[in-house]
Amino acid sequence: MNEKQMFAERLKNAMQAAGYDVRSSVLEREFNLRYWGKPITYQAVRRWLRGDSIPSQEKLQVLAHWLAIDPHQLRYGAGGQASIKEPSGVWETSSSNEERRLLALYRRLPSEQRKVVLEVMDTFAKAYSTTDSPTK
Questions:
Q1: What are the chain's domains?
Q2: Is 0.70 topped by the overall pTM?
Q3: Residue 24 burial (CB < 10 Å; 0-12/13-18/19+)?
């Protein structure tokens, strides 16, 4: 079994252990809900699960965080090094269905429309802010 196929097996096992169905559609949806970059396609996710490719380090970090597994262990298998721990940020708070839906809709927008949405949200945040600190 080659490196890509072994990664695919670890990814499938991690999905099952986290209580998810091992399906490309599930992986695509759950990954894109958590990833702030350009949404990943169904075909790319399918290649991960089939053992045809391995995601970039940035995407691997998102997968590992979602599946509650050490990134090194997900990428290389057991015997991974202890990962560097950083303080938890705002993004680790649980989000409501409404927030997840809003994020999913936002990610589907073209870049220019995303900028407009961000400007509107900044304006609302400034108008309803209880502190004088900047939002950016």
A1: 3-76 (1.10.260.40), 97-127 (no CATH)
A2: no
A3: middle
